[in-house]
Amino acid sequence: MTNPILTRALSATALLSALVLAACGGGGGSSSTSGASSSIAQSASGTVTGFGSVYVDGVEIEDARATTRVENADGSYSVVALQLGQRVRVAHDGSGSASGVTVDAAVIGAVASGSIDTAALSFRVAGQAVRANTDSTLGVVTVYGGGYTAFTDIAATDLVEVHGSVVYDSTARAYVVQASRIEKKAAITAVRVMGKIAGLDTTARTFAINGLTVSYAAATLAPSTATLANDQTVAVWGPSSALVASGSTLTLNASRVKVVNASLADSITSGTTQLGGLVSNYSATTGSFEIEGVKVLVGSATVTPTGATLASGAYVQVTGTVGSDGSITATTLRVRQASTTDDLARVRLTGAIESLTDQSSFVVRGVPVDAAGIDLATACPGVTLAVGTVVKVTASVQSGTDVVLASSLACTRASTYTMRSASGTAGTVDSTTKTFTLTTAGTTTQKVQWSDQTVFAGVTATTLDGAAVVVDGYLDSSGTLVARKIRNPAVTSGRQDSDAYSGLDPSSGRSWKQYRSSRR
Fold first, then answer.
1. Which of 75, 172, 289, 332 is most buried, judging by how many CB atoms fall within 10 Å of its CB?
2. Does residue 500 belong to any structural domain of this protein?
3. What is the pTM of this model?
4. Which of 53, 84, 103 delimits the end of a domain?
């Protein structure tokens, strides 16, 4: 069965920040050796909280033409699709139109045997302590992916990619990754850890990142002029076979170590910046704290909402001035509240309904939505929801499921650079012009253009001809569908979690019927 073209709305937003973007991350996808410029003047860093464009800690940034990528162990880049709960840095033009999005995983590796604590919702990966979060007052509620829907799905030796904010645990006297996303991976290209250097030994060429000893004797340093020092933030890669346990000591023989300066960038540009994350080492005496290793000076900053408490462990969004030393002098500090009316605590989705089971069970932007609590007669007067209906959804993450719970919904129209989704069969593939014809329902055809920004999943440019694919993209002035993602859901690597709710992946064991039954 062929799905019709789907639609989503994109819009620009106000000026966010002025901070130089750099890339460090992990994962897979279509490889590219070219990276974006390290001198982009404006960016925002935080957690993905929605799509419609992309929302970073509740702030919308139009990403229709942006390159979305991760950095690999060898310094090359791979294009990837964004997911809820990922930690990202977004480069944009100052008017809210993104040119690049860098995905930053906190740790990638295997779940350590014997480390899973279901009571504390914690485990270890590559020596790093990870904990899930179910309390919206304590920060972003953990989103699960790759087949996981809850903490209880996690098993020892599973390969995982963990996103989140690193926070200092005064009881454990160590930094812990409070996960915003835990995703199961079928395979990884390398172990990746990001954190602060401690116990540097330049003779033995080792240092520690929390519970992990890193040997950099055979590692490539980036940049090549880098000199390692304690308290530096670094990203470290190494093959899985290079992670060695000796008694209680776990050592990673790193293949590459990248120094990331205090503002999470390769160089500093003074200006304003937006940075979101968990507060560590807050001192009312000095009026300072850290987020992701970045020092923030409170000064005379306005704290919102009124009555909010600034303390270690709070999830905050900082806007302020970047100094020459990489520290941020805050002008405003927004503290996350539990309410779904607060931008820092809600999921926002703008786009077309991709699949629909009934008027309260549908998928938007790859996210399954439960709208059972919405009065549709008021939300969308005179409209019967259907595949292709463009909606705006405000929702919250729920524990134990990948379905978000809608608190508001509105029907809307498409706008400039509206993203569309179309499914059908690819043919007349021209690898020189990077185009093909997509035959959709009946004999309807659509010209598709791909580029180096396009994510391929379950299919490649050389295997497109004759493949059944789903294409996400936007229409240019000539009516060509410019592809942002091309996937073949018939192949395991081309499926996404929401396919379980559209009937494209019955092997997942998840469905709307199962979800409704579990919520009774």
1. 289
2. no
3. 0.88
4. 103
The whole-angstrom separation of Cα 24 and Cα 60 is 22
Split into its structural domains, the chain has a count of 6
Instruction: Identify the residue whose tokens are 């485990």.
Output: 123
Query: Going by DSSP bridges, is the β-strand pair 159-169/107-110 parallel, antiparallel, or unpaired?
Result: antiparallel
For 2, 69, 310, the CA distances from 482, given in Å and listed in that order, are 20, 18, 45
Within-domain flag for 43:
yes
Q: Is residue 504 part of a domain?
A: no
Strand-pair partners of 440:
none
Q: What is the pLDDT of residue 341?
A: 67
> What confidence score (pLDDT) does residue 184 get?
97
C-alpha distances in Å from residue 200, one per residue of 38, 138, 167, 174, 215: 27, 33, 21, 17, 10
Instruction: CATH number of the domain at 462, please.
Output: 2.40.50.320
Same domain? 246 vs 307: no
374-422 tens-digit pLDDT: 999 999 999 999 988 999 999 999 988 999 999 999 999 877 777 778 8
Segment 270-329, tens digit of pLDDT: 466 789 999 999 999 999 999 988 899 999 999 999 888 899 999 999 988 888 787 889
Give yes or no for residue 498 having a pLDDT over 90: yes
- In DSSP terms, 160 is beta-bridged to 109, 184
Residue 368: cis peptide before it, omega within 30 degrees of 0: no
Whether residue 425 is found in the same domain as residue 469? yes
Boundaries of domain holding 36: 12-103
